[in-house]
Design brief:
GO terms for molecular function: 3-oxoacyl-[acyl-carrier-protein] synthase activity. The chain is of the alpha/beta class and about 375 residues long. The chain is built from 11 helices and 16 strands. Strands 1, 2, 5, 6, 7, 8, 9, 10, 11, 13, 15 and 16 form a 12-stranded mixed sheet that branches. The two termini are about 20 Å apart. The model has no long low-confidence stretch (mean pLDDT about 95).
């Protein structure tokens, strides 16, 4: 069995690049502020990279270039696989064009797979270029596909992850109509949670066989030892109340990694700050893991970046493994759930960490990481 490790990370959120995001997170800072990017809409709490919404291509270029530099790889990489996704793609570009059709739009540059195409162009890839879309679990699905490409022996290196630029009038209006948007901020698992807060960002990773990483003496952030992906097919937005499929995916992660629930040292929860997700996810974790396992969601600091959220979760969990520090659940004050939430950053012995994601439409994903 080929061992798959991560040797490079590129990550951008409203808190900054990977280093800046991590340091701000440990300090309990949040990038969420009340903003009004569109004149026709009221102000909402949002997490933006800049003062105005950033294009998908710009974010993709930033995270890919950072990942390559972090892994100390030189271009071109014709034998590198690509698996980069986005749940919303270039929707913002289409909305701008719909409002002013005199503005030229090259539709070939704005198709849903644009983040994967941009990545392939940057690295000079000549092999598989995959662009999965699985709602908020997109990031985990892309990493799982990259993992499989290496395990089969087809590639020694794959760049995988997800990017999102979801701050558009239609997306904001849609979530507002659903009653899913917060009015003041993001408070995962809190009694006073209001709903999700949209954020921009992305994270991509250099996945590599352990043999390849050792051959070039690369820094290793952690090893992927298991994953699980499936779909409830229960409801367009609500999670399945019996969390049967979510349970199966966690069991799949643990079985593939040959790890018991008692060996998990940290769970990075999806934690959207919505009523149903947090309730169901807390019950799921409580049903499968011992009460002392530390749990946190980082969306109170970064906002919910939709398809990129689970990839960002993986990036921050890898930093947790590297530094042996548990990140806090920013925005949580009082919880109604009997879980061991991380309230402040704290040093801890972390060997195994689990990242969870649960998207609209019942898209479920989990990644098991090892120090």
């Amino acid at each position: 069995m080929v061992e798959v490790v991560i040797t490079g990370i590129g990550c951008w959120t409203g808190l900054g690049n990977l280093t800046q995001t991590w340091q701000n997170l440990l300090s309990g800072n949040s990038s969420i502020t009340l903003q009004k990017p569109f004149l026709e809409l009221p102000p909402y709490p949002l997490s933006l990279l800049k003062k105005e919404p950033t294009s998908l291509k710009t974010i993709t270029e930033k995270v890919v270039q950072d990942a390559l530099a972090d892994a100390k790889l030189s271009l071109p990489l014709p034998n590198c696989g690509v698996a980069v996704g986005s749940s919303r793609g270039c929707q913002g570009e289409w909305e701008k064009w719909a409002q002013n059709r005199e503005t030229p739009l090259n539709w070939l540059d704005t198709l849903p797979q644009q983040s994967a195409v941009t990545t392939a162009q940057i690295v000079g890839a000549r092999g598989n270029v995959l662009s999965p879309m699985a709602a908020c679990s997109t990031g985990i699905w892309t990493i799982a596909q990259g993992f499989n490409l290496i395990q089969t022996g087809e590639y020694e290196q794959v760049i995988a992850g997800a990017v999102e630029s979801p701050i558009t009038p239609l997306i904001l209006t849609g979530f507002a109509k659903m009653g899913a948007l917060a009015k003041t901020g993001c408070y995962p698992f809190d009694e006073q949670r209001e709903g999700l807060v949209l954020g921009e960002g992305g994270a991509v990773f250099i996945l590599e066989s352990l043999a390849s990483a050792r051959k070039r003496n690369a820094l290793i952030y952690g090893e992927i030892i298991g994953y699980g992906v499936n779909c409830d097919a229960y409801h367009v937005s609500a999670p399945n109340p019996d969390y049967h499929c979510a349970t199966k995916l966690i069991q799949s992660c643990l079985e593939k990694g040959n790890v018991s629930p008692h060996e998990i040292n940290y769970i990075h929860a999806h934690g959207t700050s919505t009523q149903l997700n947090d309730q169901r996810e807390a019950a799921l974790i409580e049903s499968l893991f011992p009460s002392q396992v530390p749990v946190s969601s980082t969306k109170g600091a970064t906002g919910h970046t939709l398809g990129a959220s689970s990839a960002i979760g993986v990036a921050l969990t890898l930093k947790s493994l590297q530094t042996q520090i548990l990140p806090p659940c920013v925005g949580l004050t009082n919880s109604e759930f009997p879980l061991n939430f991380v309230r402040e950053s704290i040093s801890s012995n972390i060997n195994y960490a689990l990242v969870l994601s649960f998207g609209f439409g019942g898209q479920n994903g989990g990644i098991l990481l090892k120090k």
